[in-house]
Amino acid sequence: MQGAVRIDEADAIDHVLFAAGTLPAVIVGLLVLVLLRRVVRSVRAGDPFVPVNARRLQIMGWALVCWPLAATLGSLAQLTLVDRNGAQDIALPVFELPFWPFGAGLVVLVLARVFSTGTHLRDVVEGLV
Amino acid sequence: MTAPADEGPPGIEVHLDRLLAARGMTLTELAERVGVTVVNLSVLKNNRARAVRFSTLAALCRELDCTPGDLLGYTGDNR
Prior knowledge:
By secondary structure, chain A is mainly α.
């Protein structure tokens, strides 16, 4: 069963907790999207195998791996918000721990390693006749 | 001090232009015979190569009828 809790006269801390409910996951998601866009632009430019892309993929991988933690922090913030307003007996925030970002993050970290090795190999053979 | 990225190892000279002139051969002809692109051979001729495969070196010596010592020279460490 699902419902909604309305908090009248919410104070500043309530607003912060409400935002913190989704903000960590949103920040992680935005970071991944911004870096992915830069990687895609380098592909369009015809030169994706550069050290900076290996670094971007590494950051994206770790961001995805940490996404479940961000989601957990968000759920804790929501729980605190409910507790502060005495609704703990009628509303229980759902703790959702998505595991797909963790798996996706591991895949991206492996890809980052592949890119890093690829750029190193490219350096080695550059200027080889 | 290290060599810039677009220059070969310091102290190594490539005498390809001299040998081509002596044999009356163009860079394009040599590239076709050796099986290396003209661009890569040009990189070698202009002392911008960072490494040469032995197979390439052997093919160059075969087509130019020379030895590696005729093709490459060491001018000492200029660092």
